[in-house]
Amino acid sequence: MNSVPSYVSISWSRDELTIIDQTLLPEKEVYLELTSHRQVWDAIKKLKVRGAPAIGIAGAYGLYLGISPLPENDPALFLHQAEEIASYLNSSRPTAVNLSWALDKIVHKLMRASDLPVATLKKLALQTAMEIHEEDRQLCKRIGESGVALIPDAARILTHCNTGSLATAEFGTAFSVILHAFRQHKLNHVWVDETRPLLQGARLTAWELKKAGIPFSLNIDSAAGFLMQQGEVDLVITGADRIAANGDTANKIGTYSLAVLANRHRIPFYVAAPYSTIDLQIENGNNIEIEMRSADEVSHFGEKKTAPEGIDVYNPAFDITPGELITAIITERGILKPDYSKSIQTYFG
Question: HSE-up of 78 (CA within 13 Å, CB side)?
Fold first, then answer.
């Protein structure tokens, strides 16, 4: 049994951010060395790095890369430029709250320390990015340890999109629960939605499960309901890109459909996420901005055209699952249960 990933999806060394290019998996395991904030923006936008926690980490390092070469003789101008770079990086993917959370955290620290020399502020930005990186690793480990209590013996779990080490600093979110259940011999099988249109389940989750030696089967997205009807699924667990104050959750498109199906078949539906994914400024799911992506992702399969020329394409990257359909939210501090408006407020104390 492989207890730790044999790959590192995101790392920092010598003023250089290294990521595994997820667009090339599973065929090629290629690492990219990013040395500018514009390269980081491009990597996030083009899904070379993806997953809410991972893009938050990448964005944090990207902000440092952006401010690192700035002149140090005008502190006010430096802080203004830092805000502009943070805003630019945040534009790469608007739905995942971890990105704006990480960028805001660094900018606020810089503003509070604005009386310090610019050189010191740069060091503070890097230190904070490294803290965000390490914190995510620890949080994800605790999410897995927390969520195991919800997993029955010989569990058959259905999951959607990718929530493993590729999407985080290590361990993952929903994947961390699966991994820890496997380690405790509570797992029978994992069903992996292919996750159209970019196949993050088929390309990435299947790749990670195979590396970890966890038994799984890949299924087409539209087979999930049939699997539940046939009694092949004991629970569904997904990650999240943004959770509103009332528990409404934005996640990869198709998540809402799974929640409805799970509710119909009386199957528990769980969301796993760290505290940084919960956005108290968003009252409910209606206020979450949904990223719309290129039509080519749907009308083409790789370079091959699979739909007629000139047609309209609807391609939202995410959907919203109402909190009422979520059995529990698994966090690094324990399990949140409905009413989420109350339990989330208590969580932040």
Answer: 23
CA pair distance 270, 176, nearest whole angstrom: 13
Question: Which residues make beta-bridge pairs with 99?
Answer: none
Can you list the positions of beta strands (E) in 245-317? 249-252, 269-272, 278-279, 300-301, 304-305
- Using CB atoms within 10 Å of the CB of residue 347, give its burial: 0 to 12 exposed, 13 to 18 middle, 19+ buried: middle
**CA 37 to CA 42: how far, in whole Å?**
9
Residue range 265-322, pLDDT digits in tens:
999 999 999 999 999 999 999 999 999 999 999 999 888 999 999 999 999 999 999 9
Phi and psi at 341, nearest 5°, equal -55, -35
Q: What is the pLDDT of residues 7-21, one digit of tens each?
A: 789 999 989 999 999
Q: Is the peptide bond before 197 cis (omega within 30 degrees of 0)?
A: yes
Q: Locate 134 and state its tokens.
A: 């390490």
- Report the pLDDT averaged over residues 170-191: 98
Give dist(CA 179, CA 167) in Å, integer.
Answer: 14
Q: Does domain 145-348 have CATH number 3.30.56.10?
A: no
Residue of 136, 221, 234, 241 with catalytic role = 241
Residue 124 backbone dihedrals phi, psi, to 5 degrees: -65, -40
Query: What percent of the chain lies above the pLDDT cut of 70?
Result: 98
3-state helix, strand, coil in the chain (%, to 5): 45, 15, 40
**Cβ(224)–Cβ(193) below 8 Å:** yes
pLDDT of residue 192 exceeding 70: yes
For residue 241, indicate whether it is catalytic. yes
C-beta atoms surrounding 294 within 10 Å: 11
Token pair listed for 96: 């995942």
| Fold observed for domain 10-141 | Four Helix Bundle (Hemerythrin (Met), subunit A) (1.20.120)
CA angle 307, 311, 316 (to 5 degrees): 85
Global pTM value: 0.91
Q: What is the domain partition of the chain in residue ranges?
A: 10-141, 145-348
